[in-house]
């Protein structure tokens, strides 16, 4: 976390500043697409977004990154410890875990409903025992806690120009759309973790199923039945993006470039999957660097326009700029000094 972001957010306590910085590093390492979009937010709102996503990443890592060798019992113990820290942090603001400390501070500053965090943790715990879903309705119930509540947590930070309850269903849908996109992109990797997020009834409608997916993963061979199921899942996901789209215009104008950029970049993953012939059982589809750059540049233009409108045409807007980077991902914006 840059000192400028923390100063703008009014975070002065050194321990708390370090906690927010840890969240930022988690977000940058694990969520590069959304991290890029986050840098288009007003500087004072970025720490809160990093706290929300940093906590989500940390909990998800407990479920996934420890690997099957850790065993469900150890992962359950880790989640239970995190739950205790979360309860303490939300109750009195204190926690020995920096990520929870930053999250609790963000929840207090923005008045975020603590029930959203409880629903999220319940979804994370279900990942320890649930490895597939019989129907899309079952998957959506899981995604309420794993994805929809993330959108709802974000709304107070982003701000709205309509009553928050009017924007809430669209924010929840956007969280679900992003996660469905990840599920489609990561079919092969999820199989390696022992999970299938494609609903069993959707697969069965095309003559496919978990055994066929595993055979395809193990042999590297394609099957038209799998491809047909993946195409239907893609169409289903695009429908959820359409549910979410009206919410973009309900956000505070200075927040819209960030969320619109994430909306376009995540939607671009679906395009990349289709371009790659729906080969997600075998490899992850990647949005071309040039496309990412074009979307980010458009986002910067929208940032300038929004901040000029809100701050007055005669003042220099607080606008990020793109800087070179040697990594395989799009360069991330750096604040103007």
TrEMBL record:
<dbReference type="InterPro" id="IPR008949">
    <property type="entry name" value="Isoprenoid_synthase_dom_sf"/>
</dbReference>
<dbReference type="InterPro" id="IPR033904">
    <property type="entry name" value="Trans_IPPS_HH"/>
</dbReference>
<keyword id="KW-0808">Transferase</keyword>
<comment type="pathway">
    <text>Carotenoid biosynthesis; phytoene biosynthesis.</text>
</comment>
<dbReference type="InterPro" id="IPR019845">
    <property type="entry name" value="Squalene/phytoene_synthase_CS"/>
</dbReference>
<dbReference type="InterPro" id="IPR044843">
    <property type="entry name" value="Trans_IPPS_bact-type"/>
</dbReference>
<dbReference type="InterPro" id="IPR002060">
    <property type="entry name" value="Squ/phyt_synthse"/>
</dbReference>
<dbReference type="Pfam" id="PF00494">
    <property type="entry name" value="SQS_PSY"/>
</dbReference>
<protein>
    <submittedName>
        <fullName>Phytoene/squalene synthase family protein</fullName>
    </submittedName>
</protein>
